[in-house]
Amino acid sequence: MLQKWITSIGLDIGTSTTKLIVSKLSIANQQNQFTLPGCQIIDRRVTYASSIYTTPMLNEVEIDVQRLTVLLEQEYKNAGISLDQVEAGAVIITGETARKQNAESILHYLAEHAGDFVVATAGADLEGMLAAKGSGAIQRSAETNAVIANIDVGGGTANIALCQNGKVIETFTLHVGGRLIRLNSDGFVTYISSYLTEFLKNNSLILREGEKATFEKLSSICQLLAEETVNYVKALNQNSTLLVSPHTRSSIHPETIMVSGGVGAMMEKQKPKTVEEVAIHGDVGPLLAYHFQSIQVSQAAETTRATVIGAGMQNTEVSGSTVYIGSKRLPLKNIPIIEIPVQQEETWNQQLFQERARASCMQASTIFSAEDPPVAIALSHFPYCSYKMLQELAKIISAEFIACFKGAKCLVVLCEQDIAKALGQALAKQRKELEIICLDQIDFTHGDYIDLGLPVAGEAISVSVKTLAFSS
């Protein structure tokens, strides 16, 4: 087993802040005469964590890539690494900065200067999912079999993810954050978000810009915001005027609630006692953190860097030889993988598989950007497959994919076992307008990204599976 250390960076660019970490990953190549080439991360160490910077912006939504480049070059020097030493990494762009032009300009810079990066523009749902992974909530749900809720509270939003059995099962976002109300050092309100207006009015609280806020009023507002968030997370409320987008709250009740993000990081600090102490950062973050702490939610193991990706590591394989490629799009890069179990019951149940496929595709359609192909559907728990079952599978997969990704023209399906050619042919018959790529013998994990190369041996193609490895 060959082993080596590689250098990887993770860069998180948000509406308010930007931060970077450098990781060393120990990679073990497990290739031998009996297996296809593959490698795993067997150890990871964070060797450098940057300061948290204000994100350089040209305007409200466009990142100043030139200033960001200067910042990154300085941080590379501080970390004691050069650009040519970086072999892998990931960039996550969140909040209002998650615009297509931002991702493209940053990707162009990284392609010229450093290793092979996963670049993801994260809407609220993906941001919540990444925070849940980075905070340790997903791992904790896998270890305990409990439902764990992670609330990632930043400047403008609280991104919530419910986790069970190592997966995110529900996401939603509330207008709750430390910078929704901003203050100067004398306690005068310099800004109040319009998203709070209806909520405060419904709770008989009025706060206006230019007003000198009292500690008691700010405390009442922050207490209400924290309680509204936690009650909705607990499913005690079925609706909230603070929801960022419409959401139907399930009846799932989490056993544990943890808080990450910038507000989560302040939960360990002393309660502010004066308006001056509240306004130390020019907002109400410290007071909001105290009120989350006072209603018995726990601080996440990782807080301010919960959405920073520790590394993007490539696991290069060769697909099975019986693949189906009905597309001329190869090569393709950075396709997010969504896992759908085929059979979790004792026997094949068409209706239950359709429910799982629909739920997974609907969640993915809210999380990932509208690229084509938008996702790769990975089929796990795949038992013996009869001809009838294969046709039913193909019908359900194509129908649910088209329903959730209406503009997509290319469908990528991954299988663990040797069935790709038959399934690909069945899928092609279902939807003649869809380009089908169906691969087998792929080792995948939900949430990974996959690159598909050109054929390398007959019909087989090279495949790179990229896992987003968080610091631990």
Tell me about this structure.
- There is one protein chain.
- This protein has 472 residues and is an alpha/beta fold.
- The chain has twelve helices and 21 strands.
- The chain has helices spanning 65-79, 100-113, 124-135, 137-144, 197-202, 215-233, 261-265, 275-278, 285-294, 350-367, 387-404, 420-430, and strands spanning 2-13, 17-29, 39-49, 53-54, 86-94, 116-122, 148-153, 158-164, 167-174, 181-183, 189-192, 256-260, 298-299, 311-318, 324-326, 332-341, 376-380, 410-415, 435-439, 449-457, 460-469.
- It has an eight-stranded mixed β-sheet with strand order 14-21-20-16-17-18-19-15. Strands 1, 2, 3, 4, 5 and 6 form a six-stranded mixed β-sheet that branches.
- The longest helix is centred in the middle third of the chain and has 19 residues, at 215-233.
- The protein starts with a strand and ends with a strand.
- Residues 33-38 and 309-316 have low confidence and may be disordered.
Q: What's the β-strand tally? A: 21
Tell me the distance between the termini: 24 Å
User: Please, how many helices?
Assistant: 12
Into which percentage range does the β-strand content fall? 25-35%
Coarse structural class: alpha/beta
The global form is globular
Arithmetic mean of pLDDT: 81
Rg over C-alpha atoms, rounded to the nearest angstrom: 23 Å
Question: Helical amount among residues, as a percent range?
Answer: 25-40%
Low-confidence parts, pLDDT < 50 over ≥5 residues?
A: 33-38, 309-316
Main beta sheet: 8 strands, mixed
Q: What is the topology, as strand order, of the major beta sheet? A: 14-21-20-16-17-18-19-15
